[in-house]
Amino acid sequence: IMRLVLISLLIAPLLGIKIGISQSSNDANTTTTSTTTTTETPASTTQAVDISGSGLGSSETVSATTQAPTFPPRKTAKPSSTPTPTLSSTAATPTEATAPPAYEPALYYCACDWQLDVCDINCCCDRDCNKQSLQAFSCWQTPEPQSRLEDFHYTHGLPACHLNDGWLCVFRSNTKPARLQPVNSNFDAAAFNKWPLESFVADAPAAQCMHYSFGQPLQLWQPDQQQLLHLQLPSAFESAHCQLQQAVRHLQPMQSSCLLQNVAAAQTQLWTLLNLTSSHQLLPKPRDLAEQQPDGINIQVCQQLATQFICNETQLELELVQRIELQLLHNYTHILEAKLILSEATQTPHWLHYELIYKPDSMLEPKPSSGALGYQPGAPLLLSKLLPQNESAPQRLDYFEAQSSSQHWLTFCSRSTPVGFGIDLMQRCRLQQALPNLQSALNHSQYCEQLQSNIWRQLLPNNCTQLKQLEQVFVSQLGRPAPTQWLPLQLPASNPGIEAVYDEAHQSLICRNMLLSVSYEFHIAELTLLQGHVPHQPVVQHARLLLGQRHDLEFDNNEQRVELPLTVSVMFYKPQPRIRNSAALQAVNYAMLM
């Protein structure tokens, strides 16, 4: 009896600590919009987001939880011994009754379909690709995602012991292993990649194809000498010096950087490529052996100067070239146009950069996307801005407009690289501005306000010059944006005005309540989307902006320019269950036992 009493006294408080869910509230930062109450989801539930279930202005994440099985499992009633009646032959079988339809637009998911309304290269499940483009792709079946050890955290109602080493955790699963497939004696390796046998390929007649296939080398044709060869670009292997030539393959972009020994080496590589493009033509499709003189495409040579863009000029205006870009316009099966763009170097180049870009033959530019459904780690975080209200049409985001010219990712401090999903970042930059003539009779409030606007232009996205303009900026919850899955950027409520004070004793100007730093916070999670069909999709659940400390800036009358240090930080938070230390639990156990 004493042992039972001690065990009960020991277990009861520990169970109260482990199972209880703590809710924390932060009253320090209030927001202008409606505050979203976030409840920490227990470890025994699976979250799912309905793509078409939330409104644009709502800041709450649409999620649904499925009840986990009870623990310990309860005994189920035994079935009665009465024989069940046999179903008639006209009744549908369970497989037929529960079989999903062949195609449901609401549950569409393709792992390689990133771009909206554009056929992704070599993506055979993309519904935007027509039959003609699929002929050029090498379609391979995408393997199904296998279960992970972290799935115990969702399916069994308890966390795995390596995540939460406590009293109640899953140490080992007793799930029956999957049945092994029987060994197939008639194995056929035709559907797998194999090393080509050059001796047999040379003797066998080459199969004629009326279009390029994915990964097939592009061909060059020399009309005068009737010579056929492959288009190649310099490439580096185990060395920074480009001593190899890599074939340009259909629909496969490539990049390479070559370390130059001197300026003469850069000129040699440039003129070698220019002589090749001037004497050869690019074939839009593989050469047909029956054609004596195939029709080729002349490669246009363009020069990207500091102030202008020139094409098809016989005289080269560039003295030093730092970047060579080959742009190929295609319709997925044929090459339609080719441009070789030479970028001028501002100083003596030490590297020569090559880049091959494929552009589809479409009038509309593809919208930026960061994943097939959820965000891909490291992909750009997507933003959009509300368009002005129109009486004839509802208010829309500029992301879904065809003629939208604004960028749709988070950048600041005049940097071109966007913020990557899940990557914490801190950026420092400086703002330089001329100081006006300081006189006591003048009103310097306008200068202080203009200075703060220039600071906001560096710290805020979409060239916002006022903090209030961020009320029209929304963050996409998904890597593949949906019209109803956007979150507002929560803003601080208190915003004291800027004051300008002129100190006659020190002959200086003081700008009060100036802000020089901001912080972006994003709460992310992995959810199951599309009614449980697509698990482990990273999404954004909450986004807000925090302001740094306010400063009083004093400028002396002798100064001519102002130089201010600015700071921006981006943090991604992923809520996880609190992991308790097993050593601490043992100490509590010993103390209670004593």
TrEMBL record:
GO biological process, one term: cilium assembly
Alphabetized Pfam families for the sequence: DUF1619_N, TCTN_DUF1619
Residue span, Tectonic-1-3 N-terminal domain: 89-179
Highest taxon, organism lineage: Eukaryota
Keyword annotations from UniProtKB, A to Z: Cilium biogenesis/degradation, Glycoprotein, Signal
Annotated signal sequence range: 1-16
Tectonic-1-3 domain boundaries: 211-346, 371-572
InterPro entries per record: TCTN1-3, TCTN1-3_dom, TCTN1-3_N
Low complexity: compositionally biased ranges: 30-46, 78-97
Residue segments, region Disordered: 26-97
Comp. bias regions, Polar residues: 57-69
Keyword Glycoprotein assigned: yes
Cellular component GO terms held in the UniProt record: ciliary transition zone
Keyword Phosphoprotein: no
Family the UniProt entry places it in: Belongs to the tectonic family.
Stated name of the protein: Tectonic
